C-alpha cells in the first residue's frame, strides 16, 4: 500500500478550497439553521434500565458512570428540561426567529408541556433517535427498532413525521438505516463541510451538516 493509495474510502479533500456557490434564495449570502437538542430524560440512567449513569456532554470533566443515580449528572440534564429549553424558547419567540428541535423521542414523550410549546411555536422537529445513548456497537436490528420507534412516537406527539434525522451518537449502520426507512428530507449526522450535499448510500440522501 502506497503512502497516497488509490481508493481510500474517506473524502478528505472536499472541494479542495473551491466550494461551489450555494445559490441561496433571495441572493442570501448564508443559510443558518438554529438547532436546539432536546435529550433530557432519555440519557443513560439506571431508571431507564441502563447499567450505569450518563458520562457524555456534561460540565463534569472525566465523568464516571455509576451503577446508581448520579445526582450531579441528573441535575445537569434536568436543567435543560426545567429551565434551559424555556429560556431559549422565550428568546426565539420574542425575536420571531425560526427554530429546529432535534428531539429524542423518549425525552419529549416525558414532557408534554414542551411538546405543546413546540407545536404552538410551529418549530420544525427532527428525530434525534429513541434514546440519547451510544449506538456504535448496537446490533443493527436493535438500532432499526429504535429508529422506527422514534419516528412512531414523534409522529404521534406532533401529528406529522419528523422532517429529518440526527442520531448524534451514531453507528456505521445509521445512515443505511435512515435511507432504508425513508421519509426524511435530510440527515444531519455529518460535521465535515459548510454546505449541504447529496450522498449515495442505497439511495440518494441529502446531508445537512452540523457546524
TrEMBL record:
Pfam families: Polysacc_deac_1. It comes from the Bacteria. One of its GO terms (molecular function) is hydrolase activity, acting on carbon-nitrogen (but not peptide) bonds. InterPro entries: Glyco_hydro/deAcase_b/a-brl (IPR011330), NODB_dom (IPR002509). Residues 71-211 form the NodB homology domain. GO terms for biological process: carbohydrate metabolic process. It comes from Enterobacter cloacae. This is Polysaccharide Deacetylase. Coiled coil: none annotated.
